[in-house]
Amino acid sequence: MSNPRDELPPLFWESGLEVKPVYTAQDVEASGGGEAIGLPGAYPFTRGIHPSMYRQRPWTMRQYSGFGTAAETHQRFLWLIKHGQTGLNVAFDLPTQCGLDSDDEMAEGEVGRVGMSVDTLADMDEAFADIDLNEITVSLTINGSALAIMAMYFAMARARGFSWDNLRGTAQNDILKEFVGRGTWIFPVEPSIRLIGDTIEFCAHHAPKYNPVSICGYHIRESGANPAQEMAYGLAIAKAYIDHALSRGLDIDAFARGLTFNFDIYGNLWEQVAKFRAGRRLWARILREAYQAKDPGSMMLRMIAGGGGGGLTIQQPENNIVRGAYYALASALSGTQTMALCSYDEAYTIPSEHAARLSLRTMQILMLETGLCDTVDPLAGSYFLETQTNLMEKRIVEIMEELEAQGGMVRCVAEGVVQAAVNRQAYENEKRLQSGQMKKVGVNCFVEEEEERRVEFHPYREDEARKQIERLTRIRHERNSAEVRSTLDRVRAAAAAGENLMPPVIEAVEAYASVGEICSVLKEVFGTYREPIRF
């Protein structure tokens, strides 16, 4: 008699891995065995980077927040902290991300629209006033202009009496994924990596507990990459930064623990969990075997993982509340250190307070009511999950080896190879969505022709943009112009001489040089990036 399972049509995840109807111990052995499952907190960290994980310390809860002026964002920060948020994930507006001042003609209509507008140190001071930086860790979602923003954050912290030796926090500062996914680049690829190297080197010597880079597979996934590509490209980017830092003479164990990761979660729950367990294990092996790291902390893949906006829908937006809860579940089952859950209205607008509170309560319910913190890696030993974790690791390695065969991650980004691969995957995903092969509730199934969409839109207030420009004008009038010119000259000279730029940029921001002025000086030395087009 034939087995009914043999007649079922094949099923594949986005990453191309086939999913069988039933798994046994034989599948685990055939895929590579279970020897690498190990124990949580022990190499290769498949089950998590800490022995007790959430039983001892639950995940940090962050939400991406920031809009308008520093004063407006400050009020949102205080509101989030009051309602139980334990970390801040700061959004910056596009002019700030692109190294433009608010009064630049290219910034018109964008000042404060999708994040907080920051021109000078005064904005940083106001945004974080009365917030204890020892209690609330801050993640700065900034890349192209990260050097200037990080300098402002360090200057602000020092002025308020916080020691750099103990300062904790994270800057995204991942420019390679910007070339692939978001586009807020400023300088060409090589000098952009040099700037990241400056921040890694500076933190290794002066701020050892601060994370200067958060490698962001998240935005690569949001741009269309499948989960295996997201992890592979993220790890390849991290390797590129390590190689650059090592070329400066830094010891791997002096800086590797400062490289953190930001990954995306949407789609098939099991695929997400397998992706993270495989990536965590592979990263540990890379650090120990390829880079001869000795410190176990260097081998730990520390990550922020939350619900991805790419999984949200404009149609039937309240369905996104349910999606977000499942994304949070996947994040917890994956062993994240920080959870940054999207709000249900983010397919439309900057989250309202109502939507932000729902996301925060979702994470709190998951933490306190569902038992997710009771035991470490509750899915370990599953025939299904361990098989797919093994196969996912092999797929990630295949993608990374393909990159190496084409010259490595830096070259593949500079020549547009990775961008083309992500674009092709995005196209394939859209075809699957439109054909109905990939189901999306409310989009291509269970569609309501005349649905009511109850979403509160965040207003863009031009008067706040004018206030920001007026503030910048006033600061330029009140600051010591000769001191600003002198500090900018030192930035220019250090850039041309190949010196670490963090010290002179910190001096410049302390003199109230603006983000746009600092980036303009660097453009004089480095030039600007021109995107290659590949088909």
Structure description:
By secondary structure, the protein is of the alpha/beta class. It is 49% helix and 7% strand. The chain is built from 21 helices and ten strands. The protein has helices spanning 25-31, 53-56, 70-82, 94-97, 121-127, 146-159, 175-182, 189-206, 217-222, 227-247, 252-255, 269-290, 319-334, 353-369, 383-405, 409-414, 417-435, 462-478, 481-497, 502-510, 515-526; strands at 60-62, 64-65, 87-90, 137-140, 169-171, 210-211, 213-216, 259-265, 303-307, 338-340. The strands form three sheets. A five-stranded parallel sheet has the order 2-3-4-5-6. The longest helix has 23 residues, at 383-405. The protein is globular, with a radius of gyration of 23 Å. It starts with 24 loop residues before the first helix and ends in a 9-residue tail after the last helix. The mean pLDDT is 94.
Topology of this structure?
Layout: H1 25-31, H2 53-56, E1 60-62, E2 64-65, H3 70-82, E3 87-90, H4 94-97, H5 121-127, E4 137-140, H6 146-159, E5 169-171, H7 175-182, H8 189-206, E6 210-211, E7 213-216, H9 217-222, H10 227-247, H11 252-255, E8 259-265, H12 269-290, E9 303-307, H13 319-334, E10 338-340, H14 353-369, H15 383-405, H16 409-414, H17 417-435, H18 462-478, H19 481-497, H20 502-510, H21 515-526
Parallel strand pairs: 1-10, 2-3, 3-4, 4-5, 5-6, 7-8, 8-9
